[in-house]
Design brief:
The chain is of the alpha+beta class. The chain is built from 8 helices and 9 strands. The relative contact order is 0.17.
């Protein structure tokens, strides 16, 4: 039986790690749960979860928006009575995994938490652009044969420049997806709500706000996927009477306001897109591989 995200899905039984008889009242995919946890319940509200990859959704309400720009039309969580709710989703393959590569692959940092200070040790990326197409490119390009590219290296390039280019790459990828969402849905984002482990990085979020030209809002609770699942279950059993109270329950930790002039941000984005094009269709074919 198909039920809304808030419904009666039965009770636990025989799981071992949970007692029998616990009611199951909320069910949602992880990104849909995060959308609820961020309080993105109205059309035009968007969130980005920075994990190993980055996952962005914009709520489109009752409107099914077919994408013409490489996004996925998906269901949002349905909170009971009424028609289904929908969203546009875009997936970035490499986000936090890029910082892990700096740590494990290059050894320029000892822990992921060090990347912010290293990137902040330089005023900019020194002309370096890093496209982390380690597993191809996801939304909005969908090129499985793209491969990672570093452009703009000079004798003056340092580990700090690479670290800063890495944070910029995460932000640039999110900008591309969000621009596609705005065009597909016909909306202009008023803000971007963020969560996930990398959202603790202040420099990343300031770069994100600068390049996007939109405020970036970080909540106190970064594990909003788990929070959204709890909200769904709580709505069903009366812990929260309605979605308005859920929205009031959310606490903001910090808002990052864009500070970069728009002309500069657009020039930076154009340079990024040039680098992305050079990374595409690079994987060797059987004819070009060494014997």
């Amino acid at each position: 039986e198909i039920l809304p995200s808030v419904g009666d899905f039965g009770e636990t039984k025989g799981l071992g790690y949970l007692p029998d008889g616990l009611p199951i009242r909320g069910v949602a995919g992880d990104q849909q749960a995060s959308l609820v946890g961020q309080g993105c319940l109205a059309p035009g509200q968007a969130k980005c979860t920075y994990g190993t990859g980055a996952f962005l959704l914009v709520h489109t309400g009752e409107q099914v928006v077919p994408s013409t720009r490489g996004l996925v039309t998906t269901l949002a969580a349905s909170l009971g009575e009424g028609p289904p709710r929908y969203a546009l989703e875009g997936s970035v393959f490499i986000a936090g995994a890029l910082v892990q590569w700096l740590r494990d692959g290059l050894g320029v940092i000892r822990s992921a938490s060090e990347v912010e200070a290293l990137a902040a040790s330089v005023p900019d990326a020194g002309g370096v652009v890093l496209v982390p197409a380690f597993a191809g490119l996801g939304a909005p390009h969908w090129d499985p044969r793209a491969r990672g590219t570093i452009l703009g290296l000079t004798r003056g390039t340092t580990a700090g420049h690479l670290a800063r280019a890495a944070l910029e790459a995460i932000a640039f990828q999110a900008v591309e997806v969000l621009r596609a969402m705005e065009a597909d849905a016909g909306v202009a984002l008023g803000e971007l709500r963020v969560d996930g482990g990398a959202a603790a990085n202040n420099l990343l979020l300031q770069i994100q706000a600068d390049l996007l030209g939109t405020p970036v809002v970080r909540p106190r609770m970064l594990e909003t996927t788990a929070l959204g699942a709890a909200y769904l279950a709580g709505l069903a059993v009366g812990v929260w009477p309605d979605t308005e109270e859920i929205a009031e329950h959310s606490e903001v930790d910090r808002i990052f306001e864009p500070a970069m002039p728009r002309a500069r941000a657009e020039a930076r984005l154009a340079r990024w897109l040039q680098a992305v094009e050079r990374s595409k269709d690079w994987e060797e074919t059987p004819d070009t591989r060494e014997p």
